[in-house]
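CORE FACILITY INTAKE
Project code: CF-77B
Contact: R.S. (postdoc)
Sample description: multi-component assembly, two entities in total
Requested service: structural model of the whole complex
Turnaround: standard
Below are the sequence entries exactly as provided by the requester. Do not edit them.
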Amino acid sequence: MTQEQLLPLILKKDEKAFTLMYDMYSKNLYGVIYNLINDREEAEDVLQEVFVKIWKNIETYNESKGRFFTWIVNIARNTTIDKLRSKGFNNSRKNLSADNFVHLLDDSNKLSNMIDSIGIQEFVKKLKPKCIQIINLLFFKGYTQQEASDELEIPLGTVKTQNRNCINDLRNFLKV
Amino acid sequence: MIEVQNYIESGILELYVFGTLSEAETEEVAQMAIKHPEIQEEIISIEKAVISLSYSMAPYLSAANYDRIKEALIKKHGKVVDLQPKSHLATYLGWAAAVVLLIGIGWQYTLIDAAKNEVAQIETERDTLESKLNTLEMSQSETKQLLAVVRDQNNIVVPLVGQAVSPEATAKVYWNQNTQTVYIDAAGLPEPPEGFVYQVWALKLNPLTPTSIGLLDDFKANNSRLFAVSNTSGAEAFGITLEPAGGSVTPTLEQLYTLGKV
């Protein structure tokens, strides 16, 4: 099932659609949340909150706001950042754990029983260090171009293109 | 076609899928995707890569989570108990009471529903405000940084004045003598047309030797219009020309916008 097929069902708030949506995206959102919060139980709590929010606010989504996947990833990021703030972990996203997703992989590997993701995990570890940093900031932590440019000390104008090259490496590996 | 290809290569679609563009930029990309199927296709491919990546990052997620979330969403209903009829009057009274009760419950339900909608709406509004606050905090720290660049005591400030092609244009060069770094304040330059970019030249005068020190890339996206370009030493003048996207090896002098001596 594709996003395009799923969307009309979700908008009808069909109960089966919820199950489908959960099956399709729970691991993705859990991956994003876990990368920010680095604690499995906390991440599970946030995941629950995120799905409730998605379901309750589904009427406010429309395609001019971007892809559905993007919309739910943003909800996941914002909810996690809220949680971190409310727990007094940190004052802002900038102070979030310095870990990047590749460090967390070793941890998640032990816990993961998904054989099919091992291949991509191994590949991700081989990505250029610059790519790991840039994808970590822009995708997982939701930095803007300007924030990423400051953090990595690279010119603003090259953030987008460097990131594209990195995603292209990933796409070549995945053949998508 | 080349424009569409350039748009794809710019890397903006990746940020669109990541969800880190502003509302306006997001809408623009969504419009472009409707107009150009190849952009839509590219977006879907990028999304596939990102979906695989985030999927592979998740630790094991037990099935119990699904049940917990479902429970949080769907309330369980209590059982209905039948009343035994005692007499006609009691039956009528019973029915009347039931009707009153039903109306009451219906009324309550409407109230609860309205309250719930209100809560959901307020939550959405709060999320929007929060993301606006984030943006504001960012732009404030950006402004502070820019001020620090501009105020540095070691700067030589070179005003550049408009030339024949654009007499109204102005720009300023902040050249830090300690670090040799160069910043261009391009607030006085018009927006470059599609497919063109401003290029900054450090000039030596005798003989006239231009050296490119950088492009004012992403002109529209840079709200402050302050650009860092390459370091330079020994420049005697600075000039800015309009060049085809990607820049040129030598300046196109007919498109010299601004010029100024150190």
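Facility notes:
- Residues 2-57 of chain B form one domain.
- Chain B has a mean pLDDT of 86.
Invoice: internal transfer
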